[in-house]
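Could you join me in thinking about how sequence relates to backbone shape in a protein? We need material for that, and I hope you will provide a protein of your own picking. Label the sequence line and the structure token line clearly, so we can match residues to local backbone shapes. Would you write everything just below, so we can both look at the same thing?
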Amino acid sequence: MITYDGEIELGRNDECWCGSGKKYKKCHMEFDERLQALADQGEDVPPRALLKTAEEIKGVKRSAEVNVGVLDFVAEHIGEGVSTEQIDQWVYDYTVEHDALPAPLDYEGFPKSVCTSLNEVVCHGIPSSDDILKSGDIINVDCSTIRDGYFSDSSRMFCIGDVSPEARKLVEDTKHAVELGLAAVKPWGHLGDIGAAIHEFARSQGYSVVREFGGHGIGLEFHEEPFVSFVTRAGTGMVLVPGLMFTIEPMINLGKYRIDMSDPNGWTVRTKDGRLTAQWEVQIVITEDGYELLSW
């Protein structure tokens, strides 16, 4: 018999697909029966290939140690007069010194080791010696790491010098939006619950949320399913099955949600109205009783 995700159904005494070495009946059989029932009810259920095993989660955690360490290093050294090219060098050096690789470097032609998105840049800002941080700037540093074949990904905002109250509030509110998204995570709930919580808060503060870009599955590849939108309705989307791993990374604009992707470099995305934007990113895995924060 073929299961909901196109795999051949295991026998009760077969070895479980998760790599535990246990018999299927003593491991994931009841779990899979629940998944099948949900799929039969029309729910969007992740294929088991997307669900990370215990060993894979350990591997991602080792990668995330480096990813978090990089951002901690940036936080200690960033400030006025630093170029985004310097940030890129910090990221590269720290990453390789810790037996890992920066995932963005050469990814689909991306020329640098990190994304540095300054002020009105929504995402995919390319580090440059021409971009010198000055008082009043806000910047997102988006770091992604490969270690032993496992991927981690997170980003932080930094306020440089004397930032306007409006800009600082945007940065703080965007971080709070991520926290509200995390609070909406419930095992066997829905992915749309996260986006709905974030979108509702952003709108309540007078902001808009970017639609074209969002979070993503991650772990064994840089970008996996599902796409994580932050303009969703509660109770919709993929079921949050334990083992599902993804990022939460809303891009929240001070002005309208529309974006400009016309930069000749083919990467840098800006707000269409030129107003400020902010983003924080965390990586989580769904557990039986909630979630585990892996990278932040």
The chain has a mean pLDDT of 97. The longest strand covers residues 138-147.
